[in-house]
Amino acid sequence: HLTNETIKAELGRASWKLFHTILAQYPVKPTENERETLSSYIYLFSRVYPCGQCAEHFQKMLKKYPPQTSSREAASQWGCFVHNIVNERLRKPVFDCNEISDKYNCGCGPDDKKDKN
Ligand code: FAD
After folding, report:
1. Looking only at Cα atoms, what is the longest distance across the chain?
2. 22 contacts 40 by C-beta, under 8 angstroms
3. Ligand 1 atom nearest to CA at 19
4. Which residues form the pocket of ligand 1, taking CB atoms under 6 Å from any ligand atom?
5. Å from CA of 7 to ligand 1 middle
6. Which CATH number does 17-103 carry?
């Protein structure tokens, strides 16, 4: 049960890491299908996120700031923007979104054909 702050914070860090990494590997020029897939993923994520209070806030934020799926750049910057809104609400430092592509490049995406691990 997610009853304490430590577990909530750990879950948050792991989730943001996955979230930003997915956005950093998202296609530069997505197809309609890829756009729909990302959008669905984000909305479904907001419904299954195990911290109920966090999920509720996130769903409200998605209504105000719908996922941007037109390109990798748009999606990554949107992800950084919404994370910063959560940061502000929790009184955490705001992250510089210019640094997002370096930080979350796992070198493991569909573009990285050489990496077959
Ligand atoms: P985190 O915010 O977890 O960030 C991890 C690392 O990501 C940072 O150290 C930094 O290197 C980097 N980072 C920071 N900002 C950005 C950014 N804008 N873009 C890219 N990278 C960045 N907790 C609550 O207590 N209440 C909530 O309502 C709540 N809602 C949440 C909603 C969602 C969708 C998620 C995923 C998490 C939520 N959390 C919530 C958890 C919270 O956001 C933090 O994950 C948690 O408090 C741990 O914070 P942290 O300081 O370790 O850094």
Report:
1. 43
2. no
3. 36
4. 8-9, 12-13, 15-16, 20, 49, 53-54, 57-58, 80, 83-84, 86-87, 90, 92, 95, 100
5. 13
6. 1.20.120.310
